[in-house]
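Supplementary Text 2. Reproducibility record for the structural model of the 111-residue chain.

All settings were left at their defaults, and a single model was retained for analysis rather than an ensemble. We include the record here because the model underlies the residue-level annotations in Supplementary Table 4.
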Amino acid sequence: MSNTNFKIPTEDIKDLISPMGFCLVSNKITVDGMKVGFMYREKMFEKEDSGWRFLSGTETEEYLEDPTMGKILDVNTVANYDAAIIPYLKMPVGTELERVEGTEEFKILDL
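Retained model, structure tokens:
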């Protein structure tokens, strides 16, 4: 993790939400500074896993297959990058959300 140039330095991360565990997040968000464009919650791998996965929505298949292009971080850290996710974090496993373009809101995807 020390090789990664995060957009927000660790010391600037504030407590915005109650602890809820870790998540997977794309470097497009934490390194490139893009907003969350797509978020989904899957079954937790272990007790500390929130199940949340955050993507910008611009990732290619090749990008997603590269394990160095994402990080395992506390959900609170992602909330510091994009506070628009906060109202949706208590949604259940199976939830898939996409940002409504140009807003701070997400819509539930019907699959």
